[in-house]
Specification:
Layout lengths: L2 H8 L10 H22 L12 E6 L2 E6 L22
Antiparallel strand pairs: 1-2
Amino acid sequence: MDIQEAIEYLEPLTHHPTLTGSYADALKSAVVALREQAERENGCSLCNGERLKNVAIVNHWGEDQIALVSGKVDENEQFVFCPKCGRRLK
């Protein structure tokens, strides 16, 4: 089951008349969290494309810094998450 299927399955349950209290709140929170995750997986204008291709986290004089790098970026210096939307980068 993917995220969208889970949302479609759980959404109607949030409106069930017998579901009240903490269970209803927990279910509604789960649906909201799944929607946010689905949006985050789409990414943003910064991480969709080549804009982060030459940006790396490099260590200069004992401190990590963000820098533009000419040439190939080392795998250990690449961003793991988009700094704008938080999507996990490949």
